[in-house]
């Protein structure tokens, strides 16, 4: 993609999906829910089953994002944050790179839609931030055998 084309893709407003509308996609296994807030915000709660992958890592080294993006396999990435700004930015960036990413609103939207909010500790006993949630997919990519590692 050319530089002007990339800039148009990054700056163009993208689709936004309400949490209630996304529930079916997640339950069917066609999407992955991602919290793009920063690690210090995760103790406030994380939508059940969401991967915690900060926007700063997406824009940086991609230590956490890299393995996830390698395993997306065409599934939609439903992104949320605290206010909807970072999730929209992350979705635009990912779409510009060819990933099926959608801004899925805010953590409050997910709670209001009835999605369970988990309280996750941000700092285990060693003082390091908790490792991001990374999907573990079986080699045959059978979604029934897929499980999430926390």
Helix and strand pattern: HHEEEHHEHEHEEE
Helix percent band: 25-40%
User: Helix tally?
Assistant: 6
Number of individual domains: 1
Radius of gyration: 15 Å
The counted number of beta strands is 8
CATH architecture: 3-Layer(aba) Sandwich
* Regions with little confidence, pLDDT below 50 for 5+ residues: 7-11, 122-150
Q: Report strand %.
A: 15-25%
Main CATH class: Alpha Beta
Summarize the helices and strands and which ones pair or pack:
Blueprint: H1 3-11, H2 19-28, E1 31-35, E2 46-47, E3 51-52, H3 55-59, H4 65-70, E4 76-81, H5 85-96, E5 101-106, H6 107-112, E6 117-118, E7 134-136, E8 147-149
Helix pairs in contact: 1-5
Explain the overall architecture.
By secondary structure, the protein is of the alpha/beta class. It has one domain: 3-Layer(aba) Sandwich (Oxidized Rhodanese, domain 1), CATH 3.40.250.10. The protein has six helices and eight strands. The strands form three sheets. A four-stranded parallel beta sheet has the order 3-1-4-5, sandwiched between helices. Strands 2-6 form a two-stranded antiparallel ribbon. Strands 7-8 form a two-stranded antiparallel sheet. Helix 1 (about 5-10) packs antiparallel against helix 5. The radius of gyration is 15 Å and the shape is globular. The model is unreliable at about 5-10 and about 120-150 (pLDDT under 50).
Any descriptors?
four-stranded parallel sheet; globular; 32% helix; 8 strands; 150 residues; two-stranded antiparallel sheet; alpha/beta
């Amino acid at each position: 993609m050319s530089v002007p084309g990339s800039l148009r893709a990054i700056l163009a407003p993208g689709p936004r999906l309400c949490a209630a509308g996304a529930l079916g996609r997640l339950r069917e296994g066609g999407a992955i829910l991602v919290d793009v807030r920063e690690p210090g915000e995760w103790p406030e709660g994380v939508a059940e089953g969401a991967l915690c992958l900060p926007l700063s890592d997406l824009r940086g080294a991609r230590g956490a994002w890299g393995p996830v993006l390698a395993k997306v396999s065409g599934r939609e990435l439903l992104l949320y944050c605290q206010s909807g700004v970072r999730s929209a930015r992350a979705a635009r960036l990912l779409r510009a790179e060819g990933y099926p990413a959608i801004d899925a609103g805010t953590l409050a939207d997910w709670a209001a839609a009835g999605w369970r909010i988990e309280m996750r500790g941000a700092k285990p006993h060693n003082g390091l931030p908790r490792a991001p949630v990374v999907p573990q997919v079986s080699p045959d990519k059978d979604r029934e055998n897929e499980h999430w590692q926390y």
